[in-house]
Amino acid sequence: MARKWIGYIGVGSLMCAALGCGILYTRQARLQQTISDKVLRFHVLANSDSEADQNLKLAVRDAVGSYMQEKLADVENLEECELVVRQSLGEIEDAAAETIAENGYDYDVTAELEHTSFPVKNYGSYTFPAGDYEALRIVIGEGNGHNWWCVMYPNMCFSDSMYEVVDKEAGEKLREVLTTEEYEKVLAEGDYQVRMKYFSWLNPYLEKLAEN
Fold first, then answer.
1. Are the CB atoms for 133 and 118 separated by under 8 Å?
2. Residue 165 pLDDT level (bands cut at 50, 70, 90)
3. pTM reported for the whole predicted model
4. N or C: which end of the chain has fewer CB atoms below 10 A?
5. Which PROSITE patterns does this entry report, sorted A to Z (predicted)?
6. What whole-number distance in Å separates Cα of residue 47 and Cα of residue 212?
7. Which of these, 113, 104, 106, 105, lies nearest to 64 by C-alpha position?
8. What is the tens place of the pLDDT at every residue in 144-162?
9. What whole-number percentage of the chain has pLDDT above 90?
10. Residue 121: which pLDDT band, with cuts at 50, 70 and 90?
11. What are phi and psi of 152, to 5 degrees?
């Protein structure tokens, strides 16, 4: 009898875990659909995961970020941001290529404004759900290394903290673009991710729930 009850408890735990993960995926999918057309992401892919290539990725990030900070200073909406980025792709590639050469490498580099599939990404206190987003995407060499990303519009990339910390002003910019509900969910998803990480082994079986 004890084994039977243990079995019931085990099955019940699995069902609760599946339900929790299913809720997580569904929440993320719905949130992603509502915010993806309100933001533009900035995405830099390193040639490889070697320490040198990862450092080069950050140098390219800084060079492009410094260039685009001034270019985007006066944009007032997403459409203006996209236009400025699209018109600046050649200069962005030049800035990246110059930085690569200055660091002693001859990697090719491309800059494109395109839709890209992202996994779940944490940025300071904010969690952006997995899905398709438009991004300024810079690929260095083979593009096989870990990537770096931030939100280019609204401006959460360029601040005194140099990318690594989302300051209050950047958070307010995001609040202005999203609805109150969307903004609160982007904050809340971070806590929810932590609570659900223990059930991550169920992910391969539940990813399709987000499509429903």
1. yes
2. low
3. 0.74
4. N
5. PROKAR_LIPOPROTEIN
6. 37
7. 113
8. 999 999 899 998 887 544 5
9. 45
10. confident
11. -80, -35
Amino acid at 203: N
Q: Of 38, 18, 35, 52, whose CA–CA distance to 82 is shortest? A: 38
